[in-house]
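#data-curation
PF: Archiving a pair of folding outputs for the training set. Convention for this channel: one message per protein, sequence first, structure tokens after, nothing in between. First:
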Amino acid sequence: MNDRTTTVGELTALVEEFVAEREWQPFHDAKNLSASIAIEAAELMEHFQWVRSEDLDAIRKQPEKMAEIREEVADIAAYLLSFSHWMGIDVASALADKMKKNAVKYPVEKFKGRYE
């Protein structure tokens, strides 16, 4: 599997099969899944706590650190896909709609090269 050939639906099915095999569906409700997303996001943030911006590129050259970060990203994705599935949210259309809304809110001519 890779980002170029795998669909969001395939990823969702992968996660849902994992959950179903363990009969975890009763525990995977919106409240628990949303909390899990936040917890895993905080674990991702820990890898960057106290790291100076100028030192960020060095992290990508550390295989062990990158493996840990990769796992946190996977945890976040798994919980997000489970949450979206449970809530009946189509991730692809939700993201496309949000990017259209952001394009109006942050027009290129006003925000290009600026973050504020």
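PF: Second:
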Amino acid sequence: MSENLNGNKKEAVSFFRPNPVLRRMSQIADRAGGNESATYAGIAVKTSFFLAVTLAGMIVYLLLNTSVFARDTVLTTVHYGKTFQFDLGKTEAITLAAVMITGLISQLVGIFARKTIPVTGSIYSFSQGFVISFLVFKVLQGYEYLGLEALLLTAAVIGVMSWLYVSGKLRPTEKFNTILMTLVIGSILLALFSFICSLIPVTRPFIMAMRANFGLCVALDLIGIVIASLFLISDFGEIDRCVKGGYPKSTEWYAAFGLAFTVIWLYMKILDLLMRIVSEKNNK
């Protein structure tokens, strides 16, 4: 522990704070001083803003899908799992790829250039909304209800994790963050190993067999959901530090985007699991 210029104790910064956006936020050394400090209400409003932008991305896709994409020339028919099948047009494919790449770039820029988060965070949220709408209303034609089910389950998980944090049953201690980062790194290494093996002719059949194994895929999806859920605890802890530590008002944007990022990620993981279960069920 060390002390800042105001004589207040400052927590040591740990390498193992999982959320990259919030970890960058916690590296800010100075405090608000005479300026207005961050508040829970301010963070809540800005988190709602990012989620509203996500909704806007969904609406834009729907508008394009009923106009521009509806007149598009079919490029290919895509099979997603054993149940879902859809026609993908050239314009739609190019637009979707551009949106996804733009979202990825904006996410990376926001992580390393904190002051851009009001803009880059909005671009990222919009891109994710666009992709979510594509999945729900194009890939899941006839099964759009899965999008609503994923939303309700996401809200339920957030509620449970909020209760666990507020009640003190689960807090982002140093050990907690270390375990969480170990799980994240392990997942990344496993995905990288799987990708490399899929490129090698000798090991490719084994990887394809693993990817076709329903039980294994569901287990991996559940692990991903658990990791995303635990990230919420880490986010709550960083938000607490932001407010109680008297961080500047501008850090509300960083905290809000970090939380919105986790919520969107959790929703996508839950939606993927529901799609996999329904696909398997319909093909028995």
